[in-house]
Amino acid sequence: MNPSQLLLRWRFMPIVLPVFDYQMENGLFASTLRGIGYRGDIGNFDYSASLNYRPERKSKDLRDSQDKKGTLKGMGNVKASMVADVGLGYRLTDYLSVNAQMNLPLTEDKNGNSMQLGMDASLLQTDQHQIGWNIATHFADSKYMQTYYGVTSRQSEKTGLKDYKPRAGIYAVSTELSWRYGGTDGWSLTTKAGVAQLLRDASKGPLIRRKTEPGAGLMVAYTF
């Protein structure tokens, strides 16, 4: 769940997307979700680095205070960028781990950097069932905050919105509960439900229509 998407009013919008995830035994992986990269571990530590993609934000998708689309085109589009995802985790017990992840743009660096600190807990693990819980705190630099939550003087002139310069730092918290059911035939079913909450300056900007966003997902996978 990406808190930077909490700019639109929440709506139930079912979307079906194919997911490809290939993991090699030597740690290399290629995935439509994780990008292309490497994951390894040393003792209780695990680490990863990958090349990924941060999608474009189109101004025509933003909603004004009347919940109408298309009236804030003066905000301009936020261009998509290639990013480096760097992660480091530490396993505290067999059931609990902590992690840090950074999202660093390699192109369009003016869009800014983001980071999250999280904790993952394994609530149940059997041959067929896995239940997990995650909680994370999200941080960003001033460029990221201005790009996704701020309004420049030029954007203000074009849209009528008030100038807004949010500060760097903590901007959101999120939590997610997941359940995976897998058989011996290679098929598995994963369901997820979570919520993200904007905080501090990110929650007060003129672009924000909703501070809290629930989310849910269902994934059917085949492993071979």
UniProtKB/TrEMBL annotation:
Gene Ontology CC terms: cell outer membrane
InterPro entries: MipA
Record key words, sorted: Cell outer membrane, Membrane, Signal
UniProt subcellular location: Cell outer membrane
Signal peptide stretch: none
Similarity-based family: Belongs to the MipA/OmpV family.
This protein's name: MipA/OmpV family protein
Organism: Limnobaculum zhutongyuii
